[in-house]
Fold each of these.
Amino acid sequence: MFMITALFFSLLPASQLTAGQTAIEALRDAVIRAETSEKASNAYKALFTKHWPSDIGLASKESNTSIALHSVWEASHRPQKHFDKNTHWHWRYDPVKTQQFVDFFRKRTSVSIPTWWQKTILNTEMEPGRGSACFGPLPHGQASSFIVQKDSIAVMLSGQKVGSLPLSTEILAFDAIRWKDQALVVVIPLGGPGKLYLFGPDAKTIVWRTDVWATGRWTVNGVVIEMVSLVLNGDSVAVFGEAGTAYAESFNATTGKSIFRFNTSYWQNWSESWKR
């Protein structure tokens, strides 16, 4: 059995929890409390190396959405021989099985998954004992753009200015979307975490800003193409991105508080290198 859910644990008095069960809870709590991608990455490794998610049904019952997404991601994996003449990878994850993860993601989060991101997830190549990489099509239909001005960077959406960023802002990938009479803007730099902003109606006031963990990559060698899209879901906004590894993060649009975070490589700490 992979794990008993947090809900079940909460129904039992502490005196009835076994040492093994309390150890699992401690490992789960470390994941939930993680405030950086590095801490979350290490916490997932500690949890999954001891309690590997192999059953989709059990994994899907996990009460924490972030842990549930990673658990079902691992449980749905089925390595399949497949030579890619472009990348020269010899393995991939069976896309039919991986579709089970996509279906679970959609059901669990109620978020509409961009078509380009779904195709990326279904095209995950891997190398046993080392790592994995996602390759997908470019997003299309985005109406956002930016203009470098004399003293700032103007974020444009459908021809109108919706936000203003410092001229020193580094932009590798970005997107913008309207939410009520305001605008949500995500900016992913070349290194380090990205930023998600909520701009007020005046396109100048920043209501809140928060970190987007994105790929977790701090240094990059060679040419990098990163893609990112924003998707609204009621009063929350999801950030979908990919730059070799795919990620999805959701935030409360009113407060900027994180709802869930998912990354196929555990922020550059590939499970293929430490799974049993």
Amino acid sequence: MTLPGDRPKPIVAPVIAVGAIAGDADKQRALRKMKVVATGALVLAAVVFVVCRVAGNGQGAWPFVQAASEAAMVGGLADWFAVTALFRHPLGLPIPHTAIIPRKKDQIGESLGAFVNENFLTPEVVGPRVVAARIPRRVGEWLASDGRPEQLAGEVGNLIAGANTVLADDDIRTAIEGFVDAQLRRLPAAPVVARVLDLAVEGNQHQILLGHGLHGLGRFLEENREVFRQRVAEESPEWVPEWIDERLFNRLFSGVQKFLADVAADPDHPLRKQFDQRLRDYAEQLRTDPQAAAGLEKWKTELLDHPAVRDALASLWLPLKRALLEAAVDPNSELRRVGASVIRQTGVALRDDPALQAKCDRWVLAVMGHVLSHYSGEITGVITHTVSRWDAESTSRRLELQVGRDLQFIRINGTVVGSVVGLLIYSLSRLL
């Protein structure tokens, strides 16, 4: 229904405007019909009165009928005046205390808003209704129903895919870079590295890594044997024979290779034990020595300031976006399966777990209490503000359209009750 004073915009909401006009037309016809009935009752009383005055002889029942018709006219006219005075000046005369609704429009809006605020928008009133509605259980039943999790997961996927058209890659890339950089700078490096070293030593991962490193170093030396041989020849004095250089290099190279192989093959090699102890000592040093922690923090800052690192952080978005979009549009992707599973589990828990339902009810009540205590004025302010924007004449006309049909019964009742009371008074006066 279109509110008084508003100007419906067909381009924005043509269906709503047409529906409101159709509904108003029905109410207008019903109001007009009841006005005819109420006015007809008053006219009937007047006709009866005239007949009694003209044709009656003052004998028999004529005086009683005349008294009833007189009182009926008085009652009908009085109630007509009262009903009309609510919405306009009767007969267009500026009689005091008439046209009440047009004159008191703003006060009515304020009073209505205050009434709703004090009697409806309170935790005592809304709270029991919220609990009785069993919102968590209903949400759980809806989420866990057959096919619903997959449908919602698909809708989320479509939403993610659709969001790609409005996302600005440069802005998001900059935001991710700034977010990750800020988090890494805020995170203390010393405790994290110390914990990582502890876990590596406890799981013997550092020795495994050392073994791979030694094997890799051995392969690197073997693959570049001629390069090292050439380097030794260049650094050797000219007076040293070449065969001596060759023999010396082979012995040194074989010794290094054998040493690396021995360390890699022997889990109890002293070098491995020394490496183990060095890592433990460094982890302890990071926890207890402020200078060591500060040195690591400085190294972390220099690393984050390096252009290559910043470029790497900025490049995180594109592969993440590509993987996310591919998973979002693929009905069989792990993302959709996990999303559907999470939705289903959440729905089942909300549907079947009374403790979780009670917890959600408490959360809803807490949110509701916060909203009502802080924003109930803004909610009821909608009523006050809307009424204040209405035109006085339109407000009166619209309100009459809503309640005018029922008010016509007051006129009818006034005519009927007036005739009965008039008849009783006249009868008592004759009896006395």
Amino acid sequence: MAGPEVYRQAVARMTEVSQEALRAAGWQIGEVDRLIAHQANSRILDTVSDRLGLAKERQLSNIALVGNTGAASIPLLLDQAVTNGTLRAGHKVVLTAFGGGLTWGATTLIWPRVTSRSAA
């Protein structure tokens, strides 16, 4: 793979699709409480956040703890954020990813109130 080109494409596509998702939701970037992105590379995460104009403290990351966990990165980060309290009911969230096969996507959601957690 051509690393620099993949980096450029990941940043461009994740930024664009996140902006599209924000427009579809009728949200401004200042309304977003959390950006949760595929955890492939911290430079990608920082650049996407910068290009969106999102404050760094609203971007969640666990890549330093768990590395690139592929398709599991967003679900793992969601669980970690709920567990440690950085993601709470009512937060406006943007999820965005760029991955295998050079595919990308994003969505918005308002995090629901979780009433119970079952042990696995």
Amino acid sequence: MNAWYKIARFLGKIILFFGPPVLVFGSLPENPAVIFSNHYSFLDPPLLAIMLNRRLWFLALPEVLEWKFIGWLIRKSRSAISISSTGPFGLKGAIKILKSGGTIVIFPEGTRSETREVQDFKPGLAMLTKFAKAVPIAIDGTFEAWPRGRRLPRRYKIKILIGKPIEFSPEQENEEIVRIAKKEISLLLRQG
């Protein structure tokens, strides 16, 4: 695990110690895995990196890597693979990580949701499921803690609900995979 990644996780744990509770339900399967999750807030990626006891690589939009402090920390910790909303996904790097036994995190909605409704999923998730088990994770509470458009976060209890791994068959169409994946996230959120 990269030293900067460890430092970022350690600092995050200290910050969370003084904040509202973050509860994790369920457990991750063995590597490799493709974690997919709903995306309400800027809090979602760091919460997963801090609370899941595993080295994670996130698919991120290129502009995220250009942010001043956060982008610098992401680049230093080597925790993100740049993707483009207009071009092809940075799938070669993600596939290489999966083939070496790593865990990739993707937010298939592509951006933070403006409502509590789960948006339609983009097909990048379906492509990655050809190389590893897919693990649904619902993050509940980050919409209330730091929704899109709010300048600063507020205290709010957060739950991370890890679903059962899904092994999609290579014959399944991308549309079917993203439909099933979206349904799994919606079901987990209702349980939260």
